[in-house]
Amino acid sequence: MRMLLIHSDYLEYEVRDKAIKNPEPINEEQRKGRLDEVLAVFASVEKVDEVNPDEVVEKALAEIKDVAGQVKAERVFVYPFAHLSSDLAKPDVALDVLRKLEERLKEEGFEVRRAPFGYYKAFRLSCKGHPLAELSRTVVPEGEVNKEERNVALEKEEELKSYWYVLTPEGELIDVEKFDFTGHENLRKFANYEISKNRVADREPPHVKLMLEHELVDYEPGSDAGNLRYYPKGRLIKGLLEQYVTEKVVEYGAMEVETPIMYDFEHPALEKYLNRFPARQYVVKSGDKKFFLRFAACFGQFLIKKDATISYRNLPLRMYELTRYSFRREKSGELSGLRRLRAFTMPDMHTVARDLKQAMDEFKKQYKLSMEVLKGVGLTPEDYEVAIRFTRDFWEEHGDFIVELAKIIGKPVLVEMWDQRFFYFILKFEFNFVDNLDKAAALSTVQIDVENAERFGITYYDEEGKERYPLILHCSPSGAIERVMYAILEKQAKLQARGVKPAFPLWLSPIQVRVIPVSDEVLDYALYVAGKLEGAKIRVDVDDTGDRLNKKIRKAEKEWIPYIIVVGRNEKEGDTITVRRRSDGKQVEMRLEDLVREIRSQTEGFPYRARPLPLLLSRRPKFRG
C-alpha cells in the first residue's frame, strides 16, 4: 500500500460519478463528507498487498499512528486514491483492506471517516504547511518487496501428487522403488533428481570452468544474474547451433516467424495462460501499463494462429521461431553456468493438429526428430535419459503408444503419472542430460496441449466448413541452445575424467585446423596452407608467436584443436603437410587436398561459419585475465 499523509485544517469531498463498474454501495449521506483538524490519508492498495491483506492493514495502521502521534492528530480521514500506484489490487481486495483499516483506526481511539470507494470525487483540503504536514509511506507484506508474480502453476506443481515408475521397452511398468537400476546408473541419478525436486546447485559444475578456460562464455556483472556474455568462439558455437536446429526444423516442414519479446499482462488469454505455465516472469512497465517478457514463443505464435484462416487441408500446420531471448526469473540459487539461466535462446515449434490421432502421430515424429537433432551435436541416447509424463487415464487408453516411445529409444524411461490433469498438456516427454554433479537438465521436449486453442480462439474449418478447436503441440527439438552447449561441455568433462581427450564435434570447433610453422622461414608456406584451407571453408589459424614448437603444440592441444599441421622446410619443398589428429592421436603425412576431403566428409550437411578470430595468433586479444 502507498500512502500520502497530509496534516490538514480540513478535508471535504463530494461524489460525482462511478469510477468502476461495481463501486461500493453508499447512501445519500455518504455522498458528501468533511472533517476538520485531520490527518488525511490518501491510500492506494496494490497488487502485492493481495498476498497478505491483514498484514498490510496492521503495517499501515502502525505508520498512521506514528505520524498522527507526531502531528498530534486525533482525527483520520481515509481517502481511496488510485493515482498513487500503477499496479493496483483487485477492487474487492482494495475495499476490504480500506474497510479493515477504518475499523482498526476506530479501535485505536481515532475519530475516523472514510470516503467511498470506486467513485470520482471532488475534494478540497487545506494543508497546514509545517515540516511534518506532508509525508509518504509504503508498506508491503513481509518479504514481498522483490517477490516474483504469483503463479498458480508453480504453486500447483509443488502440491501435485506424482506417481513414479520406470517403463521398460518390453512394456513393463515398474514402481520406481522396485526397479533394479543395475546397468542403469544414469537413470537412477535422474530419477533421484526428479523425485527430490532439488534444483539448487551446491557447487560449480565442470562445464563452467571449461566455458571460461576456452573463452566461450562469461558472467556479465553489468546485467541481472543468469544473463551472460559470449566471446567470439562462444558466439560462433552458439550461432552454428542456432542455424543447425533452425535448418532441421524448417526441413521438417515448419514455417519460420518472428514475434515480440514482451506482452500485455492484461490481455485476457495471456493472463490466463501465465497461471497455467510453471515459470516466473520478468515484469517491465511502459507508462501505466505492465508487460511481461516472454518465457517461450507460445504467445506470439498463438496470436498469429488466432488471426489466420486455417483449413483441415493445412493440417498439421507447423510454425517455428528461434527466440533470442526468452526470459524466466529462475531462483538465484538455481542459476548455474549454462545449465539454468534467466535469458536463453529457445528453438520453439508449435504444430496445429486436427485431433488426438494426428497429434500423437506428430508427437512420435517429433520425438524421432529430437533424437536426430541431438545426435548431430554429439549426444546419443546413452548421454540422456527420457521422462514421459501423463495422467492415469491417458496411460489406460494409450499405453501401447507410450511403450512404443520406450522401444524407439531402446532403454527404460522414467514415467511421472498424475491422477488428474492440471497443466495444459495431456502428454509430455523430455530428453534430460545428467551432468557431473548428478543434476539433470531437460533438452528436447514435446507436449500435446489441449487447452490453449480454445483459450486463444484458434480454430480450423473441417470438411463440412464447421469451425473446430484443434490440439497444439509444443516442441523444442534441442531445448535451449545454451543448454545444448552445457551438455556438450559436461559430456567432455566426463570423458576427460576417464582419460579420454575432450573435443567439440568437428563442425562446431571454433578452429578446426591450426598451422604451426617450425620457424619464421616457413611462415609464408604456413600462410599458403591456411589460405587453401580457408578457401575450402575450413576454419584455420596460424601460430606465428615466438613460442617453441612443443609449447605451440601443447597450446593447440589445450584448445582442443582437431587437426594440428606442423610445416617445416621438408613440407614446403615437398608440397606436403604433417598432420596430428586429435581424434586418434596419430601423426601422418598427407597432401592438403586429402585433409580437405577428410574434414568435409565429417562436416557435410552441417552449417558453416567463418573463423571468429584473427588468422594470426599474435593478433588476438585475451578476453579473460
Question: Keywords for this structure?
Answer:
elongated, 3 domains, 625 residues, BirA Bifunctional Protein, domain 2, D-tyrosyl-trna(Tyr) Deacylase, Chain: A, 33% helix, alpha+beta
Q: Output the CATH homologous superfamily of the largest domain.
A: Bira Bifunctional Protein, Domain 2
Total domains:
3
Number of strands: 28
Architecture of the largest domain in CATH? 2-Layer Sandwich
Q: N-to-C terminal Cα separation, in Å?
A: 48 Å
| CATH secondary-structure class of the largest domain | Alpha Beta
Largest sheet: 10 strands, mixed
Characterization of the model:
This protein has 625 residues and is α+β, with helices and mostly antiparallel strands. It has 3 domains: 2-138, D-tyrosyl-tRNA(Tyr) deacylase (D-tyrosyl-trna(Tyr) Deacylase, Chain: A); 159-488, Bira Bifunctional Protein, Domain 2 (BirA Bifunctional Protein, domain 2), CATH 3.30.930; 506-619, Anticodon-binding domain (Rossmann fold), CATH 3.40.50.800. It is 33% helix and 27% strand. The protein is built from 16 helices and 28 strands. Strands 8-7-18-17-19-20-23-16-15-11 form a 10-stranded mixed β-sheet. Strands 1, 2, 3, 4, 5 and 6 form a 6-stranded mixed β-sheet that branches. α1 packs across α2, α6 crosses α12 (481-497) and α9 packs parallel to α10 (392-409). It is elongated, with a radius of gyration of 32 Å. The two termini are 48 Å apart. The model is unreliable at 144-150 (pLDDT under 50).
